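A note on notation is needed here, since sequence and fold are reported together in a single record. The reader may check this reading against the record printed directly beneath this paragraph.
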Amino acid sequence: MTFTFTGSVCGRIAAGIQDPLTGGTLRLYWPDDGGQGVERADGGELTGRRDISQQRGSFQVLEPETVEAKSERLLEEVEIEADGEFTVELGERERGGDAGSDADYQGGPFQADVRLDQLPDKQPRNSADPIQFTIATIMPDWQEDETGMAATWHHCLTAKQWCGIQAMFGWWTVHGQVTDTFGQQVGNATVTAFDADIVEDDRIGSDTTDATGRYRIDYRKPDFEKTPTPWPPIELEHGPDLYFAVERGGDVELDETRSDGRQPDREDAGHCERIDLTIPAFDFDTPTLWTGIGTDFTVPSGPSDLNDIDAEGYMGAGKYALTGNPNMTGNISEDEFMDRSDPSNTDSIEYRFAVFDTTGRSLLNNTTPPSDLKDADNGQIVNGRLFSSTDIGTIQYFPSGGEISFDVTLKEKHVGSDGWIDVRAVVDDAFTEPDTGPATDLKSALENHGPVHWDDADPLIGINTNAVTSESTPSSNPGDIDDALRDETTRTEKMAVRFEIRQPGSTSADRGKTVTSIVVNNTGIFRELEVFNSDGNPVTCQGQSGDMTLKFNVYHPHLRDANLSIKANDESADNIAPPDAANPPNEVIPGDNTDPTTESASGSFDITKKLDHTCAYSVTLWTQRRLHTGDGAVSGDGTVEETFYYDDSGS
């Protein structure tokens, strides 16, 4: 009968990193106990076929004489193919010599060894001697099929075992993951490892990170023992002292020094070492033209200088959240694109704003910020466009007897698919489009009318914050003001903005200024107001008498003001401060509240003392959210009003 044994073997560097033992030889041996049994993992004994596969862990690197001594017990050997896979057919095979009497293989246990002449996909070591190691003694779970009996076995050496084998072949591995300070995995970055040596540091090797930011660099001792003569190689018995450089898109994102390699966690690296690297999300030191949000707020100039935006992402002393379509403001120098006296001058600049959703949904537009913003959950366009049109400057020139002045407007069509905006192209477009400027061109204006003046406006681009927010206004519960908001509250949402600038056509951008946290909000406010009569029913248009009770609810994640007022129709009482706590306060949220934890207010008040004569009355609730467009705070939300007629006579 034929016994077909298939499977795969590999060596594990770390979780998720495995080397198939391709090119090695799988050798199966009769057990050295005469074939009568194999020890189970639980200490029992296996004889003959079993319903489940059993193996005894017996990893051992064998000396050459041991390999020679067990050669007479060899049952079968086969080359390990691609992906570490193998197929062995057993059956009419005899075991002989001192191991026992002749017998065909009948499905019993056997030992599994692997012989390697060199590591898979690596240069051989200096010694020509192969390495053979025993993996385990196996009792396959044979199952009958159309050709005979079949069993499958997959095994991966532990990291300790495989790294030990690598060490015997003279190979070392350093691996890890590259992320940025946002926690984003950094793919397609070049990681280079160095050894901090006595005289001249050694470049050990490099690798390009995969989509998850993972890298792996394999190297040998000579790679970090390159100390030039006359200095002796004094690190013969030790590992390298590792430090790294990370490059992405032509920019050096991380540039460690030999002092990093001398740190305790980097010195004398082992044969399989994991070192994770973190690169700055952005470079705060590169000069930038982005200086503010709207006219009211300056953006941080560095990680320690937050200016008008605090660490939580609130803006200004009022701790505002950003709303609407704020302009990102700054300066555009005319020297870069307005000098056309030299026909060969093609100077210009390109800039872009990369916007991130930091609430936990997704990276919105990192390297290729789209003008259509796709939601990470369902792939649909969210709330229109990410970028909104804005005037970036004004052109002036002076034909005979007059002056021509027109705005240069940045439009959606000027924002490339990768987010870049060519300032010179925007200016030229303004000259040649009849709907935005005179039907002429800049060259003609220069030649016929003298100097053309550029009056720089503050805006660089407008950002539609609706595209980065998803929360909606909590709904009320009609008819039951005593019900709280239930679970309908609103998350605090944030965005991060990065400004980049470069020369047109360049693949390298200066990653200038970045704001990593800006609180954004575009939700309305939740408000309820009701007046109840002495029977506990809401007031009607008919005359009311007796005790009167006011109830209200207010909610918004960024609540600035809320106040109540009671006014008689003849204006004899208007916003009168209550004499005691039994009456409603004028301000239920103190004016200009800046506490981000104050999100709601509710209450129930006896207002009978306010109704001091027979008249028609109105009760109003006025609110204001702590929102800002960059150019001004959002005005109040108007009022919720209840009116009724009160009869003081008690009838």
The longest strand covers residues 3-14. The chain has a mean pLDDT of 77. DSSP finds five helices and 44 strands in the chain.
